Amino acid sequence: MKKEKLYMVIKAFWKLTGVLLHLLGEVFSILFGALFSSPESREDKSESSNSAGGILNYRTGKFDTGNDPAGWYEED
After folding, report:
1. What is the SS3 assignment for 56?
2. 50 and 17 in one domain?
3. Which domain holds residue 14?
4. Is 47 within 8 Å of 36 (Cβ atoms)?
5. pTM
């Protein structure tokens, strides 16, 4: 009877250990993914989308078709 209880306690301990190790691995995966990834910022995205061409609008800092009525298309 004592051996069966001991066996069940050990079995539960190993299951719990496995679950905790799995969760720890997930946490490290998320942390390392966030730390060592190279996210593209908003500015990088806008610059890459502007590489198609257009006229530089100095008011917005973006390239467009040149028909923004409030835009500045010549450098002051």
Report:
1. strand
2. no
3. 1-39
4. no
5. 0.45
